[in-house]
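Question: Hello, beginner here. Any chance you could explain the protein record under this note? Any guidance would be welcome.
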Amino acid sequence: MRRRLLAAALLAAGSACAQDCAGTWDGTLGGTPLMLQFNWDRLGSYYLGTAMSGAVLRPRQVDPQAWDEYDPQGHHTATLRLACSDAAARGERTGAQGERAALQARRAEDNSYNARRLAAVELVAQRALPENGRVLEVVAVPGFAQLSTVRIRQPRGGEAAVNARLRSALLQQLDNHLQCQALLRAQGRFDRPGGDRLTLQRLEWHGSILSLQFWLHGECGGPEPYAGAQQFTFDTASGEELPLPRWLLPDYFQGVAAGTPLHAAVVLPQILRGRKALEDLPEAKRACAEFELAEKAVPLAVEERGMVFGFHYSTALASCGLAFVAPWPQLQEFLSDDGRRWREAMRTAPQR
C-alpha cells in the first residue's frame, strides 16, 4: 500500500548504524528467550518468549551503555546496561526492586524481531460468514481484535493455500502494528501508541473465485494517518492468487488512465457523476473529479455483476470514495485471456 509506513525500517536498523547496539538480537534474559532491537537513535524494545507484550528502552543521554525500561503503560520498570560488539551483546537488567538478571544475545537478521511470536499466533474466530453454501469465518489475532482476516472452515484442496496466504498477510500487518507501537512508545508516546486496524469490507465467492477487500487504517507518528484498501482474489480450486490487474489487457496492468478506451467506456462516466463535463459538477464534487481524472482507476474486487474499480485517495480526499461496478458485458473486450478464463470459473460451482 502506497502510504503504509514501514515501522520496522524505522526501528530495526542494521549494524551499519553508528551505535554498536543498533540492530536485532536473539538471546536470553536470565533463563528466558529474548528478542531485542535498537535503532540508530538507541531507542529499543524487547519481548520474552513469544509474548505479544514487551518493554521499550529509552537511552540515557549521559551514558551510552545505559537504558531506562518502560512497560506499555509508561511505567518505569527497570534499568539496562549493555555492551555490544559486532556479534554479541552482554549486560544486566536491574528491576525496580533491585532484582538482577543477566542478558546475553547474538546478532540476528534484520526484520526478524517479531518472527518468533508471529509464528506462535493462533487466530481466533470472531463470527461465521455463510456465503452461497460455504462457511467462512472472520478470525483475529488474540488480544488484537482490530486486526482480522477471513478463514475457510474445513478447507479442501486449494482452500488450504488460500487460508495460509490470508494468515500470512494478517501477520505481516501485525508485525507492522507491533513495530509501530514499539517505536512510538520508545519515543515516550505512551498516551497514543498508534498502530493499525484491518477490517473486512467486501467478500464475494462465485464458482471457485473468492474475492476479498479489506480496509487498513493506521498511524505511526507521521503528520497524518495512512489508510487504503487491501485486495485478494483467489481460485479456491487451485489455491492460486489471481492479481486483479492480470484480469485486464496488458495496457491496464498499471491502472486505467484517462484517454484510454477502457477509461472512456466505464471510468469517465462515473467520474463525471452523470454530467457531460467537469464544469457541470457541483463545486463540492469538482475537487474529487479533478483528482480522479489525474489518477489511474484500479480494480478493487470482482463480483457477480462485474469488476469493482476505485482510486487510491490521499487522506485529505478520502471522503470522495468513488467505487463502482463495471458490468462484465462492458468489460468483455478489455479482459485478458486469463481474465476470461477466471470469469468462466466464477460461473461454475466448486465441488464441495
The mean pLDDT is 90.
